[in-house]
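Moderator note: this is an archived Q&A kept for reference. The question asked for a predicted structure of one protein chain; the sequence and the answer are reproduced below.
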Amino acid sequence: MRTSDWVWILACISFAFTRAFSEDSELGSARVVFQTNYGDIEFGFFPDVAPKTVEHIFKLVRMGCYNTNHFFRVDKGFVAQVADVVGGRTAPLNNEQREEAVKTVVGEFSHVKHVRGVLSMGRYADPNSASSSFSILLGNAPHLDGQYAIFGRVTKGDETLRKLEQLPTRQEGIFVMPIERISILSTYFYDTEGENCEQEKSMLRRRLAASTIEIEKQRMKCFP
């Protein structure tokens, strides 16, 4: 069997383990999709594990704050980290977005383990300094358990994460960073408890609304 075949099998086993583990922490019905230039990543939230964090991140998503942001860090087998929206976007934040984006949330540390696929908040030394940057775990990291707030997990898009892990990187201090920008082109959200037709229409409306807002911002910036 080729080495690439073993890599694929191990990745599948790892992701299956992550999904099985997550039964211990129940996902809410909300789903968020990040549409990147390498594919989509969908995730859900653990509202019973980290309610304040979930509320904050989901509000930023609904306000369109992650549109035009990027993954500034991809450390194979460890994490893919989303940049803070204040400095990571190519489109400027409006006043309402900025007001929400600079807020911090209390550190909601829990029993949930750092395994592949979970979402974990980034922070500084202050345990209550988490804002909008978060990591998607690309492997198991038990040394992070109880130190960083886990608030959700990936539900679709492991193939996209594997693409990101294969990209060329460079080392900057403690960070392993992609050489080319991994853009979050747009985002949208939906509820898994909604009826299919209404869900699809709602998703389309949100995609169009998010795109329209960003296009108008760029138009006003470039052609005042």
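Archived answer notes: Strands lie at 30-36, 39-45, 70-75, 79-82, 118-121, 134-137, 150-156, 169-172, 175-178, 182-191.
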